[in-house]
Write a structure and sequence with these properties.
Largest sheet: 6 strands, mixed
Shape: globular
Number of domains: 1
Radius of gyration: 18 Å
Strand order of the largest sheet: 6-7-8-3-9-10
Distance between the termini: 14 Å
Structural class: alpha/beta
CATH superfamily: P-loop containing nucleotide triphosphate hydrolases
CATH topology: Rossmann fold
Strand content: 25-35%
Number of helices: 7
Length: 222
């Protein structure tokens, strides 16, 4: 599904080139559940953002379903992201001015889904995550765990082929974290490709494979 070859990410300083990622070679198969681990500053989130088209590599090639993403213009990358990729953030990134219902609905508005279909899809998400009673509340009226459930619902409502999660349990207590990881496992069992970043060894074990980064380089065979 995804093939990264010799991916570098660096910033230029006055005297030297500082690498965030260096020589990343990675294949992610359709239907895989990949956990990415590593110490702070090892490049985990940067790698996830490059896979999710939120950031661009400085060098190397990126193929998504044999399509050369590294040659795409920004408009085509944005289209690919909207159509095929869902993203869950540690900090939730909900829109404070929108209700739970409106936050979940937002990706469908961007894709031009008709109102009746939007209503049906949002209702399904509210029911699936047992947050029907919260639909008219705003993010600041929810607990952290409830906000993350809304974030997950928003990420998957468009039925993405690839779900990326950047420390999705980082701001949650252990019980809420287990709930989120069980949801990711369930989505994976339904055929969704899942890639998540975590510091938690137990949660990393939910994946079918663990990738370890250190100093911007892969320390285990991909």
């Amino acid at each position: 599904m995804i093939r990264l070859s010799e991916i570098d990410k660096y910033v230029e300083s006055r005297y030297q080139r500082v690498f965030i990622l260096k020589g990343i070679n990675l294949e992610i198969k359709q239907g895989e559940f990949l956990s990415i681990m590593g110490p702070s500053g090892s490049g985990k989130s940067t790698l996830l953002n490059i896979i999710g088209l939120l950031d661009q590599a400085s060098a190397g090639t990126y193929y998504f379903e044999d399509e050369p993403v590294h040659l795409f213009n920004e408009r085509r990358k944005s289209q690919l992201h909207k159509e095929h990729i869902g993203f869950i953030f540690q900090a939730y990134h909900l829109i404070d001015e929108l209700t739970v219902y409106e936050n979940i609905e937002t990706p469908l508005l961007y894709r031009g889904v008709k109102k009746k279909e939007r209503a049906s899809l949002v209702a399904d998400m509210l029911d699936r995550f047992q947050i029907v009673a919260k639909k008219d509340l705003y993010p600041d009226q929810l607990s952290g765990g409830q906000q993350q459930l809304v974030g997950i619902a928003r990420a998957i409502i468009g039925r993405p082929r690839l779900l990326l999660a950047d420390e999705p349990t980082g701001n949650l207590h252990s019980g809420q974290g287990e709930q989120v990881m069980n949801i990711l496992r369930e989505l994976h069992s339904e055929g969704m490709t899942v890639v998540h970043v975590t510091h938690n060894e137990t949660f990393a074990g939910y994946g079918s494979r663990i990738l370890r980064l250190e100093d911007g380089m892969i320390r285990t065979t991909p």
